[in-house]
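The instructor's notes for this session suggest beginning with a concrete chain rather than abstract definitions. Hand out the sequence below and ask the class to guess, before any prediction is shown, which regions might be ordered.
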Amino acid sequence: MAAIQLQNYTLVITGAPYSSQAPQTALSFARAAITAGHTLDRVFLYGDGVHLASALSAPPSDETHWPDEWAGFLKDNAIPGVACIASALRRGVVNEPEQKRYELPASNLLDPFVIAGLGEWVEGTMTSSRVIYFHAGG
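After discussion, reveal the predicted structure:
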């Protein structure tokens, strides 16, 4: 029987929670990968995927709170969660430095997510053995 080669993944999520299955499918994959002994280098949110990093999401009590589920998973497994700065600013997801820079009334970035540029995505493509995209579909 051949040995299983462990992989290091970067996940890219472009679909928003509650309007696509991308965050849910990505989280199922991430949990299975960690359970199998693989590692996740980072999770990169792009486009509508940045809504996953909003601390202002408040789904009904009978629905899964996908931002909280992701935040807990990232914290529990010490995996960086990165929201693309351009995508985040367009969609009203901001950290404290961007709040001050643009003189906005509040910040709403959910911990442990950080805001960074596409360089994080590029680094993930260079350091990971696999990059997997979870799109909204359409």
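Then share the key points. The first strand starts at residue 8 and ends at 13. Residues 95 and 107 are 5 Å apart (CA to CA).
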